[in-house]
Amino acid sequence: MSALFSVRDLCLSFPDRAHKPLFGAAPRNEVLKGFSLDIPEGQITGIVGESGSGKSTFGRVLVRLLEPDSGQVLFDGQEIGHLGEAALRPLRRDLQMIFQDPMSSLNPRHRVWRIISQPMKRYGRGGTKSDAIAALDKVGLPPAFAERYPHELSGGQRQRVGIARAIALEPRFILADEIVSGLDVSSQAQVLSLLKDLARDMGLTVAFISHDLSVIRHLCDNVIVLNHGEIVDHGPVAEVFERPSSEITKTLLSAIPLPELDAGWFDEP
Ligand code: ADP
Ligand code: MG
């Protein structure tokens, strides 16, 4: 299995403004503390950990919305961790993101078809209304949705539009950061099974951030457990869940009601 990303000695810190002295620079808050790992191509890798453990920061480094302080981020063998914006431009289409809160990431004044077609045009991947309708079809929304505005959609439908916008660009990588957190359980199951099917059909590599291990268990091939900016467990989901090596992972696992989970909930239409 080849690695789409190889991350080496990744360090990132933010200025800790709450502890800034009156004179001089703020101390740094180390958020990613020098870890290394590979993310296999064509698989779904879950990133789990408590709030504040660095999941979103790590994801934002992968799609290069953030530049690490030090360390390497190899994308398909190319070092991208420290590229400037101009050098990143040809890679931007390949590194897409689906956001936690689609209400704030979808332009409220644009109809759905424009929301999907604008990035397609920007990246030279078509962008007609019928291209947008084709993307909607892939996420199970009928053509009439092209004319709607975000506020006319349910949470699950908005998240589908976010997915349609990302996959319409035919990226190689999608970062999905807590994308089902705001949804009811049945919409969650539908969005997750859609994402899983699309990832498989398109050969996408997905990093799926969640604080919910039951979701990771059903969706992901691999899992990374982060704690205070360090990797405390990493590997195929079945192995990590059956033989967690860290106390952190054991605690996270003990917090989910796996036995109560209806075995079929995830696969429902
Ligand atoms: P998670 O997604 O696991 O909840 P984050 O990556 O969002 O964690 O945050 C990790 C830590 O970094 C937290 O302590 C958070 O307060 C801090 N942090 C995140 N983004 C910023 C930022 N832009 N400026 C300063 N601190 C930040
Ligand atoms: Mg986060």
Q: What is the fourth-level CATH superfamily of the domain at 3-16 and 26-36 and 43-84 and 97-104 and 173-255?
A: P-loop containing nucleotide triphosphate hydrolases
The strand count comes to: 10
| Order of the strands making up the biggest sheet | 6-7-8-3-9-10
Strand content: 15-25%
Bound molecule types = adenosine-5'-diphosphate, magnesium ion
Integer average pLDDT: 92
Overall 3D form: globular
Count every helix, treating DSSP H or I runs of 4 or more residues as helices. 10
SSE order, one letter for each helix or strand = EEEHEEHEHHHHEHEHEEHH
Q: How large, in whole angstroms, is the Cα Rg?
A: 19 Å
Regions with little confidence, pLDDT below 50 for 5+ residues: none
Largest sheet composition:
6 strands, mixed
Distance between the termini: 31 Å
- By CATH, the architecture of the domain at 3-16 and 26-36 and 43-84 and 97-104 and 173-255 is named 3-Layer(aba) Sandwich
Structural class by sheet pairing and helices: alpha/beta
The percent range for helix content is 25-40%
Q: CATH topology of the domain at 3-16 and 26-36 and 43-84 and 97-104 and 173-255, which one?
A: Rossmann fold
- Quick one: CATH class of the domain at 3-16 and 26-36 and 43-84 and 97-104 and 173-255? Alpha Beta
Explained architecture:
Helix 4 runs parallel beside helix 6. It is built from ten helices and ten strands. The chain has helices spanning 55-62, 85-92, 102-105, 112-122, 129-138, 155-167, 185-202, 213-219, 237-242, 247-254, and strands spanning 3-15, 28-40, 44-48, 70-75, 78-79, 95-98, 173-177, 205-209, 222-227, 230-236. It has a domain at 3-16 and 26-36 and 43-84 and 97-104 and 173-255: P-loop containing nucleotide triphosphate hydrolases (Rossmann fold, 3-Layer(aba) Sandwich), CATH 3.40.50.300. The mean pLDDT is 92. Strands 6-7-8-3-9-10 form a six-stranded mixed beta sheet, sandwiched between helices. The protein has 269 residues and is an alpha/beta fold. Bound molecules: adenosine-5'-diphosphate and magnesium ion (MG). Magnesium ion binds at residues 55-56.
